[in-house]
Structures are given as C-alpha cells and as structure tokens.
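Why should sequence recovery work at all? Because a backbone constrains its sequence more than one might expect. Tight turns favour small or flexible residues, buried strands favour hydrophobic ones, and helices have their own preferences. The token representation captures these environments compactly. In the example below, the structure is given first.
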C-alpha cells in the first residue's frame, strides 16, 4: 500500500529525516523558485501507475507539494494522493523545508524539517537531489 507518508526523497510526514545536503549548482533566491513545477513523485515505484508531483513555491516563502497517483486496473496496490504544505528558505545550493501540514494523512506527524540540494539545469528545469535526483519543469 502506498501511503501519503511514504515519499522517500524528502521523507515528508511519517517520521523521516532527510539530511541529504548533496552538491549542486544552487545559489538561487526564492524569486527563482516562485511558481509551479511539475515532475515525478520522489520515491514512486510505479505501483499505482504514473505519479505526478507538483511543487508550488511562493515569493513569500510558502510551498505546497501535491502528489497525484494514477491507478492500474486489477492492481492490489492501494494508492493515495496527498498534499503537503509549509515554508521554505534557500541557502546556497540547499532548500530548507519546514513542513507544517499533511492535509491528507491525519495519522502522520504534521510537522517535519528537512533539507535537500538543488540546481537549476535551465531557467525552467529544477533538479532536486537527496539520495536520488528528480527534475521538475516550470509550468
């Protein structure tokens, strides 16, 4: 079963702790992040079809991550979409997240703090890395 708490890259919710400050071409500002970015759901293994992740970053420092899973007919997997919200800050090549709410998993811890490395591949392509790297495209 895939739960809202099972996102492996950022270890959102459910007690994880990501400390992956991996190198990257960062040095950006929150203004560079502002907007919506579309890409994969970190840690998705395809058990629920193709999952799509949407990051939305505001200039004021808030963010949301919305994961939407497809479904595979006749699959035994139980898949759940989820929405995480909080605040973020940018320091060098690191994004620091302060998760404040997991609106779809009331049994999960509602707060978490974690940091991940990032780099801009292009102005419209953002790579976020922890133990694995994921590319998100500006919408």
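From this structural description, the recovered sequence reads:
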């Amino acid at each position: 079963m895939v739960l809202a708490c099972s996102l492996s890259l950022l270890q959102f919710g459910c007690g994880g702790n990501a400390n992956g400050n991996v190198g990257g071409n960062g040095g950006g500002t929150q203004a560079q992040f502002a907007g919506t970015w579309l890409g994969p759901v970190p840690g998705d293994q395809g058990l629920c079809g193709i999952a799509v992740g949407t990051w939305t970053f505001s200039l004021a420092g808030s963010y949301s991550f919305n994961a939407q899973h497809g479904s595979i007919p006749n699959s035994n997997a139980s898949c759940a979409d989820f929405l995480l919200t909080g605040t973020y800050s940018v320091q060098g090549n690191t994004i620091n997240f302060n998760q404040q709410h997991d609106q779809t998993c009331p049994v999960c811890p509602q707060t978490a703090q974690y940091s991940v490395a990032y780099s801009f591949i292009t102005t419209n392509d953002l790579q976020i890395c922890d133990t694995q790297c994921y590319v998100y495209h500006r919408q």
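A few observations help interpret the result. The chain has one helix and eight strands.
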